[in-house]
Amino acid sequence: MSVSVMILTYNEEMNLPLCLASLKWCDDIVVVDSFSTDQTERIAREACVRFFQHKFEGFATQRNFGLREISYKYPWVLMIDADETVPTELTEEIQSRISQSNPETCLFKMRRKDYLLGRWIKRSSGYPTWFERLARVGRVSGVQRGHGEEYQTDGAIKSLENCLYHYPFNKGFHAWLEKHNRYSSAEAQLVTLQSPTQRKIQDLWATDTGRRRKALKAIAYALPARPLVMFSALYFFRGGIVEGRAGFTFCMLRAFYEFMIDCKIREINRRERSLPL
């Protein structure tokens, strides 16, 4: 298959074997590691994939390193995380689309399915959210947005129908909480840098799903009791209530994540005024 794969890792001994098993079709796999302290490097080298290490400063920065500093066998790179897998139907679609794409097509975005307790949490996870993950080498660069990322290109952006599979809790709830502690700090910093003029209500009706999502997010941060609102929205209105224990667990964790962001926004505001916490 004429596409390379870049995998980001940090202490992924639990996830990397499953991820690599879904990539048996690929003969050019690169692991960009953030100096793991577990068996990630051993697993990667035993799988005979190329292994690089780079200090992690953000997902976009890490992928930019991979796109700019590493040479690939093929002109297209699929960018995934170690807790994601690539199902057969997505593999086949990628092959078909890139073989038919014109030179001006430089980036493909795709959705992913989040799993918890063995169940696809379609409703409460906020599906569908789109991610730019299939890039033409030399024509794409990333920009960090809080703990998230966006990718820019001077060419056309297309969409894929099939999804990545995502297992965000596979390393354990403790690992999820540690990671989202970092994410909430980055998100709080981003929110405090935004001015009210950036909260464009008209973007709620934009045709671009990314712009609509940003507008909804900006408005949500202005709501009182936002974590409770988030839980209610995901559990009752989005349908997490019909997803059993997985749905309830996910909604509670998402509400706690939003609570951490709110706490850290208040902390930043008080620190700026030299007030004690």
What are the salient characteristics of this protein?
8 helices; 277 residues; Spore Coat Polysaccharide Biosynthesis Protein SpsA, Chain A; single chain; 2 domains; two-stranded antiparallel ribbon; nine-stranded mixed beta sheet; 24% strand; alpha/beta
Task: Characterize the structure shown.
The structure is a single chain. The chain has 277 residues and is an alpha/beta fold. It folds into two domains: 4-166, Spore Coat Polysaccharide Biosynthesis Protein SpsA, Chain A (Alpha-Beta Complex); 173-272, no CATH class. The chain contains eight helices and eleven strands. It has helices at 16-21, 40-46, 59-69, 88-100, 173-193, 209-220, 226-237, 244-272; strands at 4-9, 29-33, 50-53, 76-81, 84-85, 105-116, 119-120, 130-136, 140-145, 148-153, 156-166. The strands form two sheets. Strands 1, 2, 3, 4, 5, 6, 7, 8 and 11 form a nine-stranded mixed sheet that branches. Helix 1 links the parallel strand 1 and strand 2. The relative contact order is 0.12. The model has no long low-confidence stretch (mean pLDDT 91).
